[in-house]
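Our consortium's second objective concerns turning raw sequence data into structural hypotheses that experimental partners can test. To show how far this objective has progressed, the report includes one record in full. It was chosen at random from the queue rather than selected for favorable results. The single chain below, 108 residues long, was entered without modification.
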Amino acid sequence: MGNTPFTSQHWTDSEGRPEGGNSFGPGFAIGWQHGPLGRGDERQEPNGAFVETIIEAAKDRLEYYQTSQFACQENQQAIYHLTDALANLNERTARRESAGVEGTHGGH
């Protein structure tokens, strides 16, 4: 079960930076964000999914399981690790925002 096959295409721009893509598997199709959102008046609406959103969706599903007969310690541990992953990604966003590069290709 944990090895359900899926396929991904990851695109890069002319400078080798991540530039969207897609991932497909049984029951899901993800179109990843293509390009930066920009800043200030230049900011655009997202045109694809962000990793954070997909992690939130998986976490939400496990939390639902925890309210059912499928509640178990392994689900709780997975929720813990997904929450930790989100915290790390949020720290990255905060660091980039503080540096004035969030929404751009600048910084790392």
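The partners drew two points from this record. Residues 73-98 form the longest helix (26 residues). The chain is about 40% helix and 20% strand. Both points have been shared with the crystallography group to help prioritize constructs.
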